[in-house]
Write a structure and sequence with these properties.
This protein has 9 helices and no strands. It is an all-alpha fold and 171 residues long. The protein has one domain. The longest helix is centred in the first third of the chain and has 36 residues.
Length: 171
């Protein structure tokens, strides 16, 4: 019963606190929505080609062929081979990886080994190239010779440990 009231109580508490402080709640809501639309306008131009590329890779059969080709390696690592497209897309695009993860969950089920592994992988790894570019750009680092390989190795380790955690806890 209490858990069902958390969201309404939280909203009521935030609005009440804002009103007591004299904040224009509606104005703040509109400003936040405007900022959200600005973020959306900045993201969409990069998102559309990434999703188109992922769709083309899937439609061309490349991702399926890669999954079949790499099946022995993935089985040796303990990763369901069906998750191979996720391993390819995740370092490049968080939203593309989310789309692949949703597709895996729809086709295999959210409570399946593949669905659970995909969900844990999405939460255990990073969009490596985006993170490296943002962090290195902010820190003024221009030579990323060893950063990318190290980050990709960390991603691989994250994928392996995500699959292991799902096996340990759910099988």
């Amino acid at each position: 019963m209490f858990w069902q009231l958390i969201t309404p109580l939280l909203i009521f508490g935030v609005v009440s606190y804002a009103l007591l402080r004299g904040v224009d709640v509606f104005g703040a809501l509109i400003a936040g929505a405007r900022d959200g639309l600005n973020v959306l306008l900045r993201i969409v131009p990069a998102l559309v080609p990434l999703l188109a590329a992922i769709t083309m890779l899937r439609a061309s059969g490349f991702l399926d062929a890669f999954s079949e080709f790499s099946r022995p390696a993935f089985q040796w690592l303990g990763i369901p081979p069906e998750c191979a497209p996720l391993l390819i897309v995740r370092p490049f695009s968080g939203s593309g990886a989310l789309a692949v993860g949703v597709e895996l969950m729809v086709s295999h089920g959210v409570d399946s080994l593949v669905g659970r592994t995909a969900a844990v992988m999405l939460g255990s790894t990073e969009t490596t190239f985006y993170a490296v570019s943002v962090i290195c750009g902010a820190a003024g680092v221009t030579k990323t010779r060893f950063i990318i390989p190290a980050a990709l190795i960390a991603d691989l380790f994250g994928f392996i440990m995500a699959a292991a955690a799902v096996r340990w806890f759910f099988t």
